Amino acid sequence: MKFTAGDKVIVKHTKEEGKVIQVINEEMVELEVLNTRFPAFVDELDHPYLEWFTSKKMNARKRALNLDDFPAEKPGQQKGDSKAHKGLEQGFYFSIIPVYFFEGEDEQLARLKLYFINQTEYTLKLKYDCITNLGKEFTLGTTIYPFQHLYLHYIKFDLVNEGLYFDFKIESVAKAAEAKQLEYQLKIKPKHIFQKIQQLEQSGEPMFSIRIATDFPTVDLSGLKASDLFALPAAKPAQTYNFKKRPAKSQEIDLHIEQLVTDYHTMSNAQKLEAQLQACELGIIDAYHNQLPSIVIIHGIGAGKLKEEVHRLLKSMKKQVRQFENKYSQKYGFGATEVFLRYI
Fold it and tell me: Which residue, among 89, 6, 9, has the nearest Cα to 43 in the 3D structure?
């Protein structure tokens, strides 16, 4: 083990100085920096003595972080290396380390440190986005080598209640004919994060990991004819619905099906959802043409399926939609989303 309890260390990426509180295992230690304790990988740390002699001591409280602080990991660790991540099967992983702040004897969960782990033999190009209801929180594009982990960034714990989700675009570095790609969106509900953190506290583990995929997806073409590969798929005609007339320049769209159509009793659940999304899209376009600053989409609470599909639609309407918020209001509770329109 490179470090022991009580050693002074420096974090390579941020140049912050800290102290090793305890050794967790061969790969990780518990570190204290500015009265905050959190788990850290050993290969992210170094002894500070050379830094003391070659540069002035950095004030970590005043230093702002940027992308240059999070460079791509260096090549060198191959499969079977003692530093490969033990206990993880092959695949791509998103890992979360809770960071606690100690004030006296009180302990508070302040941040979540986010990592990407490449537990494969691929060299990868990674495009990563952290997104909330208010827009992108963090974005990063870099290269990560086989059996390496990459520190992405940290988020304030409060953000888990802001519709937090993560987009991953992963591509293997290879010849054009051999390159493989994977796109994955991960949305973790606050309840799931709370449960995971409680499990960590009970087990004494420093972090939890979510496997994005075991490998790149493969397509079996053995059963297809050459003509099938180049045939264009038949376009599915969109069904039209006879919507009830809305007041001119209305600043609300009520998506409850009985407010939209009269013959909803004969419709399937899939048809009802399709009609609700069509009405939502037409209402937003109408508000856009009428130069309204914003419009309220009333989707209700229910099981959350309609709200989820409405938010997916809003993200695709980048020309008309600047941002949207699903916050509690006295009139709708959490059953409505306010959409702010884009004109520049």
Answer: 9
Domains and CATH numbers, the chain: 1-64 (2.30.30), 68-213 (2.60.40.1600), 252-341 (3.30.1370.110)
Compute how many other C-beta atoms are within 10 angstroms of the C-beta atom of residue 28. 18
Q: Sign of the CA dihedral 76, 80, 85, 91? A: positive
What are 205-253's pLDDT values in tens digits? 888 999 999 999 876 666 666 666 566 666 565 677 888 888 888 899 9
**Range 306-309, long-range pairs (CB < 8 A, 24+ positions):** 306/255, 306/273, 306/276, 307/337, 309/273, 309/277
- Prediction pTM value: 0.49
At residue 230, the 3 state secondary structure works out as helix
| pLDDT tens digits for range 249-280 | 889 999 999 999 988 888 888 889 999 999 99
Helix (H, G, I), strand (E, B) or coil at 335: coil
- Judging by DSSP bridges, how do beta strands 91-103 and 181-187 pair with one another? unpaired
Task: Find, among 19, 67, 65, 70, the residue nearest to 45 by Cα.
Answer: 19
